[in-house]
Amino acid sequence: MTTHPYDALMDITARPKAVFVRGAGSYLWDDSRKRYLDFVQGWAVNCLGHSPPAIADALAAQAKRLLTPSPAFYNEPSLKLAERLVANSAFDQVFFANSGAEANEGAIKLARKYGSLHRNGAFEIISFAGGFHGRTLATMSASGKKAFEPLFEPKVAGFKKAKLNDIASVEKLINDNTVAVMLEPIQGESGVWPATDQFLQELRALTEAHGLLLIFDEIQTGMGRTGKLFHYEHTGIAPDIMTLGKGIGGGVPLAALLATERASCFEHGDQGGTFNGNPIMCAAGLAVLEEISKPDFLKTVTETGLLLESELQKVSARHGLGGVRGRGLLLALDLKLPIAPGIVAQAFEAGVLLNAPQLDTLRFMPALNVTRAEIAEMIDCLDGILTRAGAARRVA
């Protein structure tokens, strides 16, 4: 076991001492050569698994050609990726960023610019309790995460919180200062709570009736995660603005802000960033989109998601747990008890990586090309942990 300088990194989260050195597909290896089955995948980042050849080859090829010419100039990969995203979505223009938080920050700025130009200076954005939009000051303010409330005061003003799947709670917050409504189609950090298709359709009708922008944060749900390229495609409606992150880069820092022509109102100097639209990152994004666009890829995601959902429901029935929430390969299991961190720790020791967004919830975000055998391996591990936990409770 190598000795590592752990103290040199800021201590901003509890991490196990394992140091990962290699990844391939659904598996990771640490520096002691222990193998782990990964159902977290960087929080839905590695949509094609760890170090997929398509992305590795694209990065290597682009690195030999051009690292960056500066965002003051066009580069080929960013133009190609923007064109592909526009061609495959309801949007007309793309701004590339480095993280989901930065894309969401851009969406907030774009909405406020729209309000200044078209709604007499309106600047308020309605977001939702339980939502999570990032860790910049503005995106933390837009989030409805309880743990954020006492942090880094004062918050950025202008965000009112509605209740997910309650259209009346949105309508009563609308006033002359409102410019947009912003939400995740599925709230990930709060425990994988989906907005219903009906609610999203009602929200589109409400925003159109009031002349407001509708912003979908698809940082976690986009790029095939729910069985469509973008989650909004399930609903029959489209937002005015959408943000992408996580899966769009397949493991590298890439994000995007997409908008319709009507909502695209940035002027020169309003928005930018040193590495935004970087050729290497956009080359990775092109490789991701190429793989996801292959025939039957998204159909397989849907089928695999249904299999995982079914297996989790069987586990729940065997152990007297709660329901399974989510869509595609973004799912959560309600444990009904605050035992999720303990299960995550035991699974880690057994060589399986799981995530507990809440004390009573497990979240599952495997690679989109996860296999049936890998799902069975994870289920066997989880079932064994729950069986031992149930036996321990009975003895106690």
Automatic annotation (TrEMBL):
<dbReference type="InterPro" id="IPR050103">
    <property type="entry name" value="Class-III_PLP-dep_AT"/>
</dbReference>
<keyword id="KW-0808">Transferase</keyword>
<comment type="similarity">
    <text>Belongs to the class-III pyridoxal-phosphate-dependent aminotransferase family. ArgD subfamily.</text>
</comment>
<dbReference type="GO" id="GO:0003992">
    <property type="term" value="F:N2-acetyl-L-ornithine:2-oxoglutarate 5-aminotransferase activity"/>
</dbReference>
<dbReference type="InterPro" id="IPR049704">
    <property type="entry name" value="Aminotrans_3_PPA_site"/>
</dbReference>
<keyword id="KW-0963">Cytoplasm</keyword>
<keyword id="KW-0055">Arginine biosynthesis</keyword>
<comment type="pathway">
    <text>Amino-acid biosynthesis; L-arginine biosynthesis; N(2)-acetyl-L-ornithine from L-glutamate: step 4/4.</text>
</comment>
<feature type="binding site">
    <location>
        <position position="135"/>
    </location>
    <ligand>
        <name>N(2)-acetyl-L-ornithine</name>
    </ligand>
</feature>
<dbReference type="InterPro" id="IPR005814">
    <property type="entry name" value="Aminotrans_3"/>
</dbReference>
<feature type="modified residue" description="N6-(pyridoxal phosphate)lysine">
    <location>
        <position position="246"/>
    </location>
</feature>
<protein>
    <recommendedName>
        <fullName>Acetylornithine aminotransferase</fullName>
        <ecNumber>2.6.1.11</ecNumber>
    </recommendedName>
</protein>
<feature type="binding site">
    <location>
        <position position="132"/>
    </location>
    <ligand>
        <name>pyridoxal 5'-phosphate</name>
    </ligand>
</feature>
<comment type="subunit">
    <text>Homodimer.</text>
</comment>
<keyword id="KW-0663">Pyridoxal phosphate</keyword>
<dbReference type="InterPro" id="IPR015424">
    <property type="entry name" value="PyrdxlP-dep_Trfase"/>
</dbReference>
<dbReference type="InterPro" id="IPR004636">
    <property type="entry name" value="AcOrn/SuccOrn_fam"/>
</dbReference>
<feature type="binding site">
    <location>
        <begin position="217"/>
        <end position="220"/>
    </location>
    <ligand>
        <name>pyridoxal 5'-phosphate</name>
    </ligand>
</feature>
<dbReference type="InterPro" id="IPR015421">
    <property type="entry name" value="PyrdxlP-dep_Trfase_major"/>
</dbReference>
<dbReference type="Pfam" id="PF00202">
    <property type="entry name" value="Aminotran_3"/>
</dbReference>
<feature type="binding site">
    <location>
        <position position="274"/>
    </location>
    <ligand>
        <name>pyridoxal 5'-phosphate</name>
    </ligand>
</feature>
<keyword id="KW-0032">Aminotransferase</keyword>
<dbReference type="InterPro" id="IPR015422">
    <property type="entry name" value="PyrdxlP-dep_Trfase_small"/>
</dbReference>
<feature type="binding site">
    <location>
        <begin position="100"/>
        <end position="101"/>
    </location>
    <ligand>
        <name>pyridoxal 5'-phosphate</name>
    </ligand>
</feature>
<keyword id="KW-0028">Amino-acid biosynthesis</keyword>
